[in-house]
Design a protein that fits this description.
The protein has 12 helices and no strands. By secondary structure, the protein is an all-alpha fold. α3 packs across α4, α4 runs antiparallel to α5 and α7 crosses α8.
Length: 365
């Protein structure tokens, strides 16, 4: 009996999966409601995994270079992390809230400024034709109103999320604590995961899964850690430049530029839009200088800073990056744009493996 089950285990596995899928389709409302509740319970563990994922390379570096034991290393890392988080809560968050509140309050004045400039333009000799004047005025008014409504709704949503951060603060704290245990016992979790994989899939398939798990981990760590450091530096430089140009809300706008800089190629241009948009109301020439400054900053990032930090490890052509961003963004929004590049890189490594190229794989071992 056991030998027969062992012989037909693949068929039994496929039949079980098909049965589960059928039951999910038949009871999809209950399933998605149950899955949503389970995911809500697991949020602290998602936080813990994300924190441990980002801090693990730093822990490995300190243990190798400084020869500290695990407890001392974790004490150093988490003391630094808690200090940074405290700085963000005490200094950064109030400034962000104040900037967003001021923008929302001044939005009607900004709209009046745009209307006045449009009226002056339409009264000029370039629009003497009444029908053309009316058509252009209606089109521009509609566009301006839609743009202001979008910015107003976006800022109101950001403001609401900042206020609502307290509701998820406890989950983050729990995740922070759990991440300490994850890092402390990471060898145990790694060994347990390997045992489960080998038990379920056997030696050959287990080796395959473990290998590609390591490759995936390497690709995502290289991208997110390198790009986070790169974006942090760009955000600081942007803040200094906007202060020098006397642009409005330099701290808020620098954070926006730094965050969107995480998205290669497209992100810098998205981040530049609010900078130019808000600078225009202070002084149009300020908006022009701000646009030129951000263009120079992004060129510096793309040609000097980015390659210095990330090197050529991502190894993806610009057209492939654009394709990954557009597909990821179209399917999953901002999150898809963010993870599209490392996923595309992973797919390129898989393709290289199956066509016989091993260069990338050797770097990921």
């Amino acid at each position: 009996m056991l030998k027969r089950l062992e012989k037909n285990k693949d068929i039994i596995f496929i039949a079980t999966v098909l049965l589960v899928i059928y039951q999910i389709i038949q009871n999809y409302e209950w399933f998605f409601s149950f899955a949503y509740r389970v995911l809500g319970i697991l949020v602290p563990f998602f936080w813990a995994f994300g924190i441990a994922f980002l801090l693990n390379p730093l822990m490995v570096y300190i243990e190798k270079k400084r020869k500290f034991n695990r407890i001392v290393t974790l004490l150093f890392i988490y003391t630094f992390l808690i200090g940074v988080l405290t700085l963000l809560v005490v200094i950064v968050t109030p400034q962000l809230v104040k900037s967003i509140t001021d923008i929302i309050k001044n939005m009607p004045d900004y709209y009046d400024i745009v209307e006045n400039k449009i009226s002056v333009l339409l009264d000029s000799k370039f629009f003497e034709n009444p029908e053309l004047n009316t058509m252009v005025k209606d089109s521009v008014d509609t566009l301006a109103k839609s743009t202001f409504d979008y910015f107003n709704d976006s800022l109101s949503d950001i403001f609401s999320r900042l206020i609502g951060l307290t509701s998820g603060f406890l989950q983050f704290i729990v995740g922070l604590i759990v991440s300490i245990y994850m890092l402390y016992d990471k060898e145990y979790f790694k060994l347990s995961s390997k045992k489960i994989v080998y038990r379920l899939f056997g030696a050959q398939k287990g080796d395959f899964i473990i290998h590609w798990g390591n490759v995936t981990n390497t690709v995502f760590q290289e991208f997110f850690i390198g790009k986070s450091l790169d974006s942090f530096i760009i955000g600081l430089l942007c803040w200094a430049g906007l202060l020098f140009l006397n642009a409005p809300y330099p701290f808020l706008l620098a954070i926006i530029v730094g965050i969107f800089n995480m998205i290669p190629y497209v992100g810098p241009f998205i981040g530049a839009i609010p900078v130019v948009f808000l600078s225009f109301f202070v002084k149009p020439i300020t908006a022009l200088w701000a646009a030129i400054f951000i263009l120079i900053l992004q060129q510096f990032d793309g040609n000097v800073l980015g390659p210095k930090i990330l090197g050529n490890r991502m190894g993806i052509k610009p057209i492939s990056v654009m394709l990954a961003i557009f597909i990821g963004g179209g399917l999953f929004g901002i999150l898809g744009m963010l993870v599209g590049v490392p996923i595309f890189k992973l797919l390129s490594i898989i393709i290289d493996q199956f066509v016989g190229s091993k260069g990338d794989l050797e770097n990921c071992e």
